[in-house]
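Researcher: Here's my situation. A collaborator sent me these components and asked whether they could plausibly form a single complex. I don't have experimental data yet, so a predicted model of the whole assembly would be a useful starting point for our discussion.
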Amino acid sequence: MNSIEYRPFQSGIAPSRARAIPWVSVMLGSCVTAIPLIATVPLLPPVGLLMLLSWRLLARFSLRHWAAGPLGLFDDLVSGQPLGSAVLLWSTSFLLIEMIEARLVFRDFWQDWLIAGGAIAFCLLLGRFVAVPVGAHVDAVLLAQIVITAMLFPLTARLVAWIDRKRDAE
Amino acid sequence: MAPARDRRTGFSRRRQNSVFFSYVLAVAGAIVGAVLLVISTFNPPAFAALRMAAASVTVPVSSVVAVAVDGVASVPENIGHYFFVRRENAELREVLKRQNALVLRARALVMENRHLHRLLNVRDRAAETVVVARLVSSSASSSRRFALLNAGRWSGVRPGMPVRAADGLVGRILETGPNAARVLLLSDSDSIVPVQRTRDGLPAVAAGRGDGRIDIRAVSGTNVRFQRGDLFVTSGVGGLYAPGIPVARLDANGIDAVASATLATPDSLDMAMVERVYMPMPAPVAATP
């Protein structure tokens, strides 16, 4: 290798592609609802939301502040929730995370997990109240769904960390 | 994790502005979401076209995956069938012999029924099947209970059409795309179907609970006793569902309202039949001056 070919600051992956990868991974997470499964109870975790929170908490500059809105719109199109619910709830949880981040600057993974758990519970609970009437019998299943989703956060965090590392390395 | 220094804007006016506007956009996103939510709450079909455009992309993918999964899952089953084919054959012969008498009797009854209808001059409609298709995916992460059908407007599916399986009612079509349709399942908390008890014609409604089951509620009077084993079929009231489609068989006693499972289980369904709307609403008559 001669000195001309040595470019220490050039990253292998095109900047546009590197910026698109977080968006695409969140949208693929939303598309998990396309799996051929006719569920009678809502137990599938909202994978799009998990991916979004993982990107936001682990690699905070990978998504813009306003990215939650368009990504939420896409999630609403495929999830069956009334259109606008994820746009509102995901944007609000982004703003809440921003406020928490301004106060809690030194964070460990446990704090990240706690913040993600809070955001998941916030989105799923409010999503339930905007989607179905208060009298519907979905609350026990909803609690189970919140617990399952919060427990899956370390997994998606690992996945996001792996994608992020590949994104930087390439 | 260390605090984010990169977000400090320094003295660059351009950088300050871009950070400021990204926050403005973030708040605007939340406000737009709230407006969209209000619109879709008060006018649920408002964004049907957008949703079905997305569904017409995901449904073919789901169909292919469903066929692949079925193919893999059927391998052990087929091997099992191969080993037990003799015993199964004998069993089926037995069943056929038993059912034969029943079929003959049913044929006689159908004929008699037709004669009686003709005598009474009843104008009856027969339920027509529009298309037979698969339910390929569902809103598994949402509290709503929707399923996606892999047939749409190209196959003649229209909103409002009832969807049934061989063993009972599944739901009705809510929105249609070119090659996909969204089905409101019976267990959705917005679904209400008028039904009647087969034993005595007692009118009731089957309202979805949201947890995969339905509530059978009596509509006439109070202190109505429901018994275990009561069979409920659609009554045809409202003109959407043809009368006589099985809906639920009670597995518990109750008074006035009782929760029950549906007869057709959408989670283990092979094929769903879309039927024509039983008695379509007449077109609105233009007001004459």
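Model: Some features of this prediction you could bring to your collaborator: DSSP finds six helices and no strands in chain A. Residues 15-34+43-161 of chain A form one domain.
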